């Protein structure tokens, strides 16, 4: 794990998220706290309905927690107007969604350019350079429907990296990929951490758990940092279970 300060990465403190449908109220997150430093890769695992996607949405500023705070590089992104959250997300956070983050009517290159246009100033790398980094430069003019699953995942990663984010959040990035492509995409995420990103991966993949520095398990909206065996997976990062939040 990097020696970087957690103030230079992602911090969530006591996150709660309530959903109300009629007279019924669901508590999706129950006081979740976590920290991911720059240079670190953290995997979040848990059964369907445990709160993983809700957690990622709150961390990304796509949704507001009902209670608690989210900070990126010491800047609070939660409990702000939606337009401010979008601006901060575009500047600080890259998001790789399970459904991919490409607009269907734009080429891979234009999708990256559009993401870069969300932040004023000259981007650190051109769209072509980013697509070359993730291995799909030759497919830069292709529409999303013309790309294979692996190409979509890599082009989506280029979009997530468009503005050199300090935090990279990935929601099931390898869920529909074959083994070889899964390894490639996970290595790319790991490389981003080694380049100084704080990387958090929501996953069911044992391979994603294997490359992580730490594993956090969610169950019924509660988070526990856990040995991989306790998360129903295997790998080298076996630790004593300890509670992260109540």
UniProtKB/TrEMBL annotation:
Gene3D superfamilies: P-loop containing nucleotide triphosphate hydrolases. Residues 10-245 form the ABC transporter domain. The keyword ATP-binding applies. Keywords: ATP-binding, Nucleotide-binding, Transport. It comes from the Bacteria. SUPFAM superfamilies: P-loop containing nucleoside triphosphate hydrolases (SSF52540). The keyword Signal does not apply. GO terms for cellular component: plasma membrane. One of its GO terms (molecular function) is ATP binding. It holds the Pfam family ABC_tran. Belongs to the ABC transporter superfamily. This is ABC transporter ATP-binding protein. It comes from Streptomyces naganishii JCM 4654.
């Amino acid at each position: 794990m990097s020696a970087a300060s957690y103030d230079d990465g992602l911090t969530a403190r006591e996150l709660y998220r309530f959903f109300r449908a009629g007279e019924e109220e669901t508590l999706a997150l129950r006081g979740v706290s976590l920290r991911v430093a720059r240079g670190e890769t953290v995997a979040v695992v848990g059964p369907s309905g445990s709160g993983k996607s809700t957690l990622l949405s709150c961390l990304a500023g796509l949704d507001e927690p009902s209670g608690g705070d989210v900070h990126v590089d010491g800047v609070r992104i939660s409990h702000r107007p939606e337009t401010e959250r979008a601006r901060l997300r575009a500047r600080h956070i890259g998001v790789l969604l399970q459904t991919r983050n490409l607009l269907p009517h734009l080429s891979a290159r234009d999708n990256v350019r559009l993401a870069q246009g969300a932040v004023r100033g000259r981007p650190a790398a051109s769209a072509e350079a980013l697509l070359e980094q993730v291995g799909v430069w030759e497919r830069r003019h292709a529409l999303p429907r013309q790309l294979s699953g692996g190409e979509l995942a890599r082009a989506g990663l280029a979009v997530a990296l468009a503005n050199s984010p300090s935090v990279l959040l990935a929601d099931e990035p390898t869920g529909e990929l074959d083994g070889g492509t899964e390894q490639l995409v996970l290595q790319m995420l790991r490389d981003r951490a080694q380049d100084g990103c704080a990387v958090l991966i929501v996953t069911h993949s044992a391979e994603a758990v294997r490359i992580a520095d730490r594993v956090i398990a969610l169950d019924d909206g509660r988070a526990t940092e856990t040995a991989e065996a306790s998360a129903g997976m295997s790998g080298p990062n076996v630790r004593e279970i300890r509670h992260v939040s109540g």
